[in-house]
Every structure is written in C-alpha cells, then in structure tokens.
Amino acid sequence: MEVGPVRTNRAMAFIVCLLFVAVIVTGAFGTSWNTVPELPENPADPSNIEGIGMLIFTQFIAPFEVLSVVLLASLIGAIYMAKGEDDR
After folding, report:
1. Please, which residues have CB within 8 angstroms of residue 56's CB and are 6 or more apart in sequence?
2. How much is the average pLDDT of 43-52?
3. Among 10, 22, 23, 38, fewest CB within 10 Å belongs to which?
C-alpha cells in the first residue's frame, strides 16, 4: 500500500486550493469597482442595461440562440460524462 503519493497529492491539492482562494480574494477586494450614481437614460449608451437587452433580442438574436444551444449541449455532455460507466 502506497501512502506517500496520496499524501503528496493531497498536499499539492491543498496548496492549489489556497492559491485559488488567494487569487479570488485578491481579485474581489483588490479591485476598484467603478460605480455610477444612476443608470444612464440614453439607449445608445453601451452601459445601458435596457439597451443591451434590446440589442440581444433584436440585432444579435441569431448568435444569442446559437450560443444558448451550444451551452445547453455542453451542459448535457458534462452531465453524461459525470455519470460514469457504471450508471449507464
């Protein structure tokens, strides 16, 4: 029974997890999040949420639908792969 490699893998996994958490915390708290006092009323303004919604559902409807089908297919594929051989 080999105990050494398992302990090494767990230690490396723990270190990687700590680094991941450090990056997330640094990104969340170290970033200056720019805010605006109120939403712009101009529909041509690219930061307007209503304007973005109108563009997605009018001018960019075909790419939006294609992307939704691709994401759905990847979700179904991930579920199929996660089930494993013994559940099929």
Report:
1. 64
2. 70
3. 38
